[in-house]
Amino acid sequence: MIIVYKRGYNMKNNFIIYGLLTIYFFLNTFILNPMNLPFYNEFINPILWIIICGIAVYLSHDTNLRVKGERDKTQSLLIALIIYIIVYFLLGLVFGFERTPYSKEILGILKNLWSFVGVLFLQEFVRESLVKNEKKKRINYILIAILFACLSINFSNFSSHFADLQTGFTYVSSVIIPAFLESAILTYLVYIGGAKFSIIYRCFITIPPFVVPIIPDLDWFGTALVGIALPLAIYVYMNYVHVNRTERLSKRERRKYNPIVYVPVFAFIGVLAGFVIGIFKYQPIAVMSGSMSPTFNRGDAVVIKKLSTQEKDLLETGDVIQFVSGSKFVVHRIVEITNDDYGNKLFITKGDHNNTIDVDKTSLENVKGKVMFVVPFIGYPSVWLSGAIS
Predict the structure, then answer these.
(1) Is the full-model pTM beyond 0.90?
(2) CATH, domain 282-389, list 3.40.50.11720, 2.10.109.10, 3.40.50.2300, 3.40.50.12710
């Protein structure tokens, strides 16, 4: 990409835009949002962004942005985002699906697109104005990314997300970090291709829930995984395309930008994440107590094999199983097998370190899996986190 500046870079103009965005941030966070004004999303917020965008575009009209290889970059970005959409909806096979809360009537769709997607378009033209006017330094683009990330986060009820450490950790992982990474990739896309590229990105991310009846029902972990992995993957791929189109590099220099180099890394991360959240037949579980010592200890991890109904029926005395007891998952040993009054099989369990058997008997339905082997010590991060939360 080549940025052509007229009269140098326009930092004075950017200070005006930064000032407008700062005013909007405080006005929106501390006055407008808490007031719960009617028609805020449909009228007030879009009008504010139209004003900011109009001023920003006017202040940057004498600075041009020329893009090399725009066609190739556009095609590459579209291909990458189409792959993302396919993978995103395939995640529904793992996490399940949920109905979107938005109206699917034509007028309802148009209203939502105006209220939310329209504002996103205006934001990207403001972002482009800042990028065009900035001196070509990395720190400037980082500041732009941070500013827009802050604008995307709802700070009016921010403290409620940090009522305890667990809630705060979940919120930071699934909202804060993805927001900053998304803003970073949007700023980078503007840098290499203008607002057109960032708008394409935001369309693929934002529009689906408004136009399709169901979307993947991602929990906080799935949301964090997608929110972190997608911007990183898009950056690696688009940076390779950008370098190939704009830089004169040797084959050896080009090789280090090739996204194929990162495929094993992303594949490993994907498999590891799937292993941790239980996509596969086997799943690791951190040992949170010493009730099974010395077989395994607090801070170890056990690998659980998920069992079918037929496999559960073949369990024997001495097997160590994972089962549901009340609202908790427990890993204890079967010490006796009995039946209820209707002939249904029940397991009597006990922790190896405990003096007495567990109070409740476990039915086949409550059995989740069988312990296959133990990995010492690697469960300590989960133990420490759980201790900090409690």
Answers:
(1) no
(2) 2.10.109.10
